[in-house]
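Convert to structure. Protein one:
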Amino acid sequence: MEEYAREPCPFRIIDDCGGAFAMGCIGGGVFQAVKGFRNAPSGFNKRIVGSLTAVKIRSPVIAGNFAVWGGIPAMAGSAIIGGVLLTLIEGVGILFTRLSAEQFRNPTPPTEDPMALEGTSKSFGVDHTSHHQTYYQ
């Protein structure tokens, strides 16, 4: 349940990257201090200087790598959740578009033969057959 009590998406990614950077900085600093101390020339002062130099040079690189690798799962999780939400929103939009499209459809044209309709025009007292026959023949 703790996962749902966290901040929303963009702040969660930055928070995870920051935590991973801090962890990489501390862990990388300790590791590089030991490594620099061991690889420095003999003498306590030279080893301390070698240790601090190694920490200054390599610790930010390790911290940056930790931040990148710590942020990837946060971004992937946020992207998956965002993709699912976007899919749901677009699906509902398509559903409403299809449902409302029925009322805006053009009516189907009549499928009756126009020549069969000529007999009905005589019943109204207008005879257009001779006028049409001169144009169509």
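Protein two, convert as well:
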Amino acid sequence: MVYIHGGGYYVGSGNSLSYGPEFLMTEDIVLVTVDYRLGYLGALSFEDQTQGVPGNAHLKDQVMALQWIQENIEHFGGDPHLVTIFGESVGGASVHMLMLSPMSKGLVHRVIAQSGCALNTWNRGNLGTGNKIAEIFKIDEKSTADIIKKLQQIPMKEFVTKIQSPGELGVRVDVPIDYSPVIETQTNEPAFIPKPIIEMISEASNNVPLMLGYNNNDTLIFQVQKRLYTGTAFIFDNLNETIPADLDLSHDERLNLLASIKDTFFKNGQIDLTTNIGAISEYGLGPWFVTGYLQSIQKHLAANHNVYFYVLSSDTTLNFFKRMHPVTGTYPGASHMDELGYLFRTPYAPCFKRDSLEEKSFRQAVKVWTNFARYGKPASEEDTFKSIKITDLNDIVYINIINDKVVNSNEPHKKVWDFWRNVYKTHKRVSN
């Protein structure tokens, strides 16, 4: 099982301090965690893609890790013919793209995309980040080749210090993000993303079982971050920034959609500091996760791929991210990243007793993940719940992981999914 960490393509590491293997090691698997280039070092690209810097270095690093695993994992007791890749947030988007890319053909056999997929609009990048960096360093050469030579002369410490600013990282879904992937259409070398991602799904280079999912209160992360940094509550100050970039809307259509969002998700159509945090988190699931999942599932079903869905609703002291702020800790369910506390021994993991709810809960989550790695489905024959593939975009069947129990269910966050189904049925989509 190969884990790809999240962090917005900007921060993070696969180190054992962050992702301790102890929980997953209770099952008979071999765990590999990898690092890859981050920030502008991972997302460096030029509009002239013929000069050897077409973009997506971060994703190509992940391919190199998978190639190494094919060549060496047998020496560690692993099976190169049964490689499961799983990742969270941009790690979820990454493993989904690794399933699709021709560069990783034959390297993966199972895919688990956690709280992120290839078609989430925050996974759209900006081509030409190299020119932006050249401006920062006041490089005035005109040709791409000359700019690259100048950049290569900059000491690494100076390069990283000057451009790796946290201020560059955003959570918006309405505009491309510098660190996210780009389409490589003009490169002279193998391309990781040779065409719009949505077109790659129908001809996925690895037609393997896929499990998608998120946490039931995933966007509570916005509250945690805002309160930790500013002490104030998070609200959507500008709803216009929450409309996904893949929707092609006229001015009037945009205004109508904004009005519909307010009427559907917010009491009296108002959003201010008195707005219920639960309503804000519920709405956020749509633009940040559900919209990408809807498009992905539709394309995978059309291609007859095996797709499963999960929701993690666990709420114990293992939910490390949600418990970083006492206000958000009072809301039920699991925030963004909280599932990681059930798969890995994190720095925030509490001490707990044998047969405690925490132990039973992590063992249940680990069982679902390792079942999928073994069998290509989340349930074994001994489990009380069933593995049910999605067959209808209008009826999302899923498994709900609630602490130490797993139940089968239909239609997660029905209001959210129904709303965005209707939006994408009635409005034109722009490929990404």
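The chain has a mean pLDDT of 92. DSSP finds 14 helices and ten strands in the chain.
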